[in-house]
Amino acid sequence: MADVRDLICYPIKGCAGTSMSEALLTPAGLAHDRSFMVISEDGVYRTQRRDPRLAVIRPRISTDGTRLTLDSTDAPGRYGTLRIDVTTSAPRRDVDLFGAAFKGIDQGDDAAAWLSDVLGTPSRLVRVPPEHDRVSDGHTPGPTGYADSSAVHLLSRASLTLLNRRMAEHGAPTLPMNRFRPNIVIDSHPGPGHDGDGGDWAAVPHAEDRARRITIGSAELGYTKLAVRCAVTLVDQELGARQGPEPLRTLAGYRRAPGGGVVFGTKFSVVRPGKLSVGDEVTVQEWGDAEA
């Protein structure tokens, strides 16, 4: 058996996440997840790959999505706390996400000034417009906001435990789960069986890679692809700075994808929206073959 151990929403793409005890799963992922994005003055998305200081920004969004609060863990109090009323009626502007053209609703000069100060480079904040129609690719396509690809990223504690064990073998320190920025963290819940196809399947590292249909609470997820990892995993999420070659160096030794790159964690689209809670049982309705 497996259950949900953490639910994390990232209101602003590339910024810190917020752990929740329960969350609404919408067709585009956890409610408000990656519904905002920091961009350059010419509309190009900002990412921790180029702007690691995004990690020190702690956004909080109200349940109804109408109020956004921005704080920073870097020199607490230096930048102050900014609270803005979210607008969905301002003019749309062109934004660039991985070279693709989309629209964003600019959230005003106060947010732009605050972000520019923290990041040290001119920046603005945009929100996904209600008419946003981006669809992810993969085995089960589905709507998504400003996430890198699919709506939901799921990772098991067993997979992280194995990675940390392998890193420790050559003297590298262990890493926390937040290096990988998942939305749903699962762990094994002892029960009969231990074979990866039933029973205590989540105790098997990377068993989530073979899950094709998952139900959690009243919601259902469909597999899209494995999560290809990039330089964001090198960023210490507390310091907002790169910290050496791990975990990519170790992952390259045992988690290379046939098509290139290293993979860790699994991406899903939302087949059936619903409510998720920490402690919910995670049930695999359909298994497939591992792709890495």
Got a strand count? Answer: 21
Largest sheet data: 8 strands, mixed
* Total helical segments: 3
SSE order: EEEEEEEEEEEHEEHEEEEEHEEE
In percent, how helical is the residue content? under 10%
Q: Compute the gyration radius: what is it?
A: 19 Å
User: What's the end-to-end separation, in Å?
Assistant: 23 Å
Summarize model confidence as the mean pLDDT: 94
Structural class: mainly beta
Characterize the quaternary organization of these chains: single chain
| Shape, principal axes of CA atoms | globular
Contiguous runs where pLDDT drops below 50 for at least 5 residues: 193-197
Strand content: 35-45%
Task: Please outline what is shown here.
The chain has 3 helices and 21 strands.
Report on this structure.
The chain has 292 residues and is mainly β. Helix content is 9%, strand content 37%. It has 3 helices and 21 strands. The protein has an 8-stranded mixed β-sheet. The radius of gyration is 19 Å and the shape is globular.
